[in-house]
Design brief:
Blueprint: H1 2-21, H2 26-31, H3 39-42, E1 45-46, E2 52-53, H4 63-80, H5 82-86, E3 90-94, E4 100-105, H6 119-134, E5 138-145, H7 152-172, E6 180-184, E7 205-212, H8 218-222
Parallel strand pairs: 5-6
Antiparallel strand pairs: 1-2, 3-4, 4-7, 5-7
Helix pairs in contact: 4-6, 6-7
Length: 230
């Protein structure tokens, strides 16, 4: 209990310092009802491996505030990423459960068979990172996918490495690592089932799924997103 109280005090002080240095930074998070300190200390949740996640530095949203919070975030993402979406570099969509999915085309993000980010992908991820850092009552799932060309083992490894590359870059741009989860799903969730190499590129992508942390159901935000195929 002493350690929890000390952590809360430390986080509260850090929050005040952050607001003092950047008076506009807390506007969006505050408007959504998500305090920086609170939810995780009182309601510990577990990651995919079952280990408790403490001090995730995010606040849970009251159920009634979630929809508007995510709608505002989606509108900001679509505004910032308008050029990339228009050029089919990515798409921003709302999923059935209210989560957001920024589907990034792998062909414009990585060279064939590689997991090193291209400069143009970094520019788009910079815009994404600035928004998800501001809207801090969410967990970010980075999920890599491939097409069905090559062996399943090779595709699984490539999807994992690409997800790791995107995750590492987001962390380098200020997104807290404790808010990020990464996984690769290889060729298991194809958007189109074809081997003609015409529609096939649609399968090569990285899904960045943004899940709200809802008060009383915090664990759900840390659970992997459901099926992301076609």
């Amino acid at each position: 209990m002493f350690m929890q109280k000390a952590l809360i005090a430390t986080l509260a002080a850090a929050t005040l310092v952050g607001c003092a240095t950047d008076p506009n930074r807390s506007t969006k998070a505050g408007a959504g009802g998500g305090a920086v300190v609170g939810a995780i200390i009182g309601n510990q949740v577990s990651g995919a491996d079952g280990a408790p996640i403490v001090g995730a530095l995010v606040g849970a949203l009251a159920g009634g505030a979630v929809g508007k919070y995510m709608d505002r975030q989606r509108a900001e993402l679509k505004q910032k990423l308008e050029a990339e979406e228009r050029n089919n570099q990515l798409s921003v969509n709302t999923m059935a459960d209210g989560s957001l999915n920024v589907a990034v085309a792998a062909d414009v993000t990585f060279d064939t068979g590689q997991a090193v980010l291209k400069p143009q992908a970094m520019a788009a991820l910079d815009k994404l990172a600035s928004t998800i850092t501001d809207y801090n009552s969410t967990v970010i799932h980075v999920v890599g996918h491939t097409d069905a060309v090559g062996t399943p083992a090779t595709n699984q490894s490539l999807s994992e490495r690409r997800a790791a590359s995107v995750t590492s870059y987001l962390i380098s741009r200020g997104v807290p690592g404790q808010r990020l989860r990464q996984e690769g799903r290889g060729e298991n969730e194809l958007l189109v089932r074809t081997a003609d190499n015409i529609a096939e590129p649609r399968n090569r992508r990285v899904d960045i799924v943004i899940k709200a942390i809802v008060e009383g159901n915090e664990q759900a935000a840390y659970s992997p997103p459901g099926y992301l195929g076609g």
